[in-house]
Amino acid sequence: MGKHHLVLGRTEDFLTGRIIEDTHDERYRQMIARRLVNDKGFAKSDIEAGHRMQVKAGEKCGLLTAAFLVRMKGRIVILIHYGPGSLVTRHRSALAMGRLVAPYQVPLVVVTNGRQADVLDGVTGKILARGLDAIPSRAELERRWAGLDFAPVDEKRRQVEARIAFAYEIDDSCECDDTACRL
């Protein structure tokens, strides 16, 4: 299966130090990781890049990738979903991923194409802010901690969210997309 993105060589991953493929998408992901650490005050250890999650929709099964999970106090506080192109088309699937990645609803979901970002309330889906600068800092989240909603996600809701994520991210994916695959 061929990939549709241009490989520009190899680069060092900012968070792990591993050598990885250098692509246009990877350059955006690296920029976001640097912003989270250098501008937003998160430690590299607070951030997990490329988190793979299995989703099941009826008899169908697949893997999705969250670009970043940001943790504080042992909980995921931000899920960042990266993809080129339109942001609004990724809102619903990113919210679904935020309801599947943990037993609770991730309170903040960020959808970004590397140039723009929408910060969403994980519970309501409402756009809270726009722009890469609007991604909350660690200090801001510390101040807002008591107001963050980590509502549990029941099994029936998880099944619905899995179907939504599967439909948007796997059924609708390009066969050369390396962030989603059918199992």
Structure at a glance:
The protein has 183 residues and is α+β, with helices and mostly antiparallel strands. Helices cover 26% and strands 31% of the residues.
Written account of the structure:
The protein has 183 residues and is of the alpha+beta class. 26% of the residues lie in helices and 31% in strands. The protein has one domain: tt1808, chain A. The chain contains four helices and nine strands. Strands 3, 4, 5, 6, 7, 8 and 9 form a seven-stranded mixed sheet that branches. The radius of gyration is 16 Å and the shape is globular.
Tell me the domain tally: 1
| Poorly predicted residue ranges | 173-177
Q: At the third CATH level, what is the topology name?
A: tt1808, chain A
Rg, alpha carbons: 16 Å
Helix and strand string, N-terminal first? EEHEEEHEEEHHE
**CATH C-level category:** Alpha Beta
Q: What is the CATH-assigned architecture?
A: Alpha-Beta Complex
* Oligomeric grouping of the chains: single chain
In percent terms, what proportion of residues is strand? 25-35%
Q: How is the topology of this model organized?
A:
Elements: E1 9-12, E2 19-22, H1 24-39, E3 47-57, E4 60-72, E5 75-82, H2 91-98, E6 108-112, E7 117-121, E8 127-130, H3 138-144, H4 155-171, E9 180-182
Parallel strand pairs: 5-6
Antiparallel strand pairs: 1-2, 3-4, 4-5, 4-9, 6-7, 7-8
Search tags:
183 residues; alpha+beta; two-stranded antiparallel sheet; 4 helices; 31% strand; globular
